[in-house]
């Protein structure tokens, strides 16, 4: 057991107001942010460090923390996995710390079992659970060896589970070939009272922000016959979202069968979400960009077959004092080897375009150090090489796309802005009630931070806003849920 594991901690001198210790362990209240990076866990103690004696999927470390609203886990495994697919890793939660109730798995009475790779769970009485039933969110969505996981305490309570302040519970995990801990009985934890609160961005544009950009996947039906933007039952939600965010540049994905003129007429007409003086252009087969500033040029950026990206040259000198290049992307979705290959080719194509832009060899020419923003629904699941390539310029298909090249003007990687939801510690950008996939991070915004400052960034999830915030900005609680299964990604930049 590692030196940070508190199994033998002596709680005898603790204040009587602290909940009774469970298995020598009390509580670790802390506001954790599910951002896929894990930096805020470094100040917290690991709940358990395993001996590393398992086979196949080896479980190594577990951290636990909580706030009034959520139970947080951080799990480290020996080798990278995709948490949401192709594994049998199962969490057992004894929500009442009573081995005589629930199932008898791993020597604890588990009220909840959740199998991550199957994306499903079960109560002890056999009731099936979906991710929304337990308020599950986890990052990253690509293969990694460390994951952050959050459960909603109110969602667990709705399942009849005991997760109130002062309640004690036990946690265990198992996979084919390993378990954590090795002994029966799980790991004890107490949900103490806590005043930990979310340090969240606001919707307001801060002083010093010259330009606001918003990326939004507005989904189609599966047959691409109709985009939600043109659905009259949803249009008021779009109007409220756009008027609340008030972007200067709007990058839309999944406009397959709609022209830029179609989008312009809808957003400046029935939806009335942007000024009528905006400029519009479509590239890449489905990517539409609207801008309060002139669009001087566009280009289709070749990548995987059927999945091109779009490049736009904006004259933003009145706002930034410089032109701006915006690249909008929507690589192929979903898991599998062929999908991974397709996404890699699309990403390689964008990196090649940025390399050529810096060399003066792209379809349009810009002065050195022209700011660049890359944004869109990236569908990064599975292979972690795709986000690595886009950030660092490490082209994989060099025979087709040429030599790797760092994408920023000074030879450095792009900045991954990684926005956070307003009112929530989550950095997840997608949700889909009825889908087996829990909320994840598929939407990204990158910038050349050698020549741009990101003043502010956020994800807009109207259910996460306070009632006062929704009133202030004229939003309804279900607006983002009605509009899309993706959240608006918003960045404020200056130069």
Automatic annotation (TrEMBL):
Domain of life of the source: Bacteria
Q: Which first-to-last residue range defines the signal peptide?
A: none
Please, one GO biological process term? DNA repair
Instruction: Report domain Endonuclease/exonuclease/phosphatase positions.
Output: 214-486
The record's listing under InterPro entries reads: Endo/exonu/phosph_ase_sf, Endo/exonuclease/phosphatase, TDP2-like
Question: Which PANTHER family does this UniProt record tie to the protein?
Answer: TRAF AND TNF RECEPTOR-ASSOCIATED PROTEIN, TYROSYL-DNA PHOSPHODIESTERASE 2
Cofactor(s) needed for function: Mn(2+); Mg(2+)
Q: What is this protein called?
A: Endonuclease/exonuclease/phosphatase family metal-dependent hydrolase
Query: Per its record, what are the GO molecular function terms?
Result: endonuclease activity; hydrolase activity; metal ion binding
| Pfam family name, one | Exo_endo_phos
């Amino acid at each position: 057991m590692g030196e940070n594991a508190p199994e033998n901690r002596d709680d005898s001198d603790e204040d009587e107001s602290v909940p009774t210790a469970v298995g020598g362990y009390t509580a670790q209240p802390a506001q954790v942010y599910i951002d896929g990076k894990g930096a805020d866990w470094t100040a917290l103690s690991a709940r358990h460090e395993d001996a590393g004696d398992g086979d196949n999927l080896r479980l190594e470390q577990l951290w636990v923390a909580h706030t009034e609203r959520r139970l947080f886990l951080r799990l480290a495994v020996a080798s990278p996995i995709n948490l949401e697919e192709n594994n049998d890793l199962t969490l057992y939660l004894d929500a009442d710390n009573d081995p005589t109730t629930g199932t008898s798995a791993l020597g604890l009475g588990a009220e909840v079992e959740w199998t991550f790779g199957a994306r499903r769970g079960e109560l002890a009485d056999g009731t099936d659970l979906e991710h929304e039933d337990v308020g599950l969110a986890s990052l990253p969505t690509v293969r990694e060896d460390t994951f952050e996981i959050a459960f909603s305490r109110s969602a667990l309570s709705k399942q009849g589970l005991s997760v109130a302040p002062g309640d004690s519970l036990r946690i265990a995990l198992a996979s084919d070939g390993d378990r954590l801990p090795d002994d029966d009985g799980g790991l004890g934890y107490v949900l103490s009272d806590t005043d930990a609160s979310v340090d969240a961005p606001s919707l307001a544009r801060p002083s010093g922000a010259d330009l606001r950009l918003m990326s939004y996947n507005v989904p189609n039906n599966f047959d691409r016959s109709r985009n939600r933007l043109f659905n009259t039952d949803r249009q008021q939600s779009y109007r409220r979202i756009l008027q609340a965010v008030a972007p200067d540049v709007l990058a839309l994905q999944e406009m397959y069968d709609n022209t830029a003129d179609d989008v312009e007429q809808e957003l400046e007409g029935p939806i009335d979400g942007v000024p009528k003086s905006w400029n519009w252009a479509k590239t890449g087969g489905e990517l539409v960009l609207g801008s309060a500033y002139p669009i001087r040029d566009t280009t289709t950026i070749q990548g995987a077959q059927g999945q091109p990206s779009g490049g736009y040259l904006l004259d933003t000198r009145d706002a930034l004092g410089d032109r701006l290049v915006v690249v909008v992307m929507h690589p192929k979705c979903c898991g599998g080897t062929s999908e991974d290959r397709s996404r890699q080719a699309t990403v390689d194509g964008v990196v090649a375009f940025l390399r050529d832009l810096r060399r003066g060899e792209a379809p349009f020419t810009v002065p050195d150090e022209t700011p660049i923003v890359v944004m869109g629904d990236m569908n990064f699941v599975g292979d972690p090489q795709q986000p690595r390539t886009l950030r660092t310029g490490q082209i994989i298909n060099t025979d087709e796309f040429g030599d790797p090249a760092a994408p920023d003007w000074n030879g450095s990687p792009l900045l991954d802005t990684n926005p956070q939801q307003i009112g929530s510690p989550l950095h997840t950008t997608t949700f889909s009630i009825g889908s087996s996939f829990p909320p994840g991070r598929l939407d990204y915004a990158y910038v050349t931070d050698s020549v741009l400052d990101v003043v502010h960034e956020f994800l807009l999830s109207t259910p996460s806003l306070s009632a006062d915030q929704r009133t202030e900005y004229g939003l309804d609680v279900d607006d983002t849920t009605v509009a899309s299964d993706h959240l608006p990604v918003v960045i404020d930049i200056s130069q």
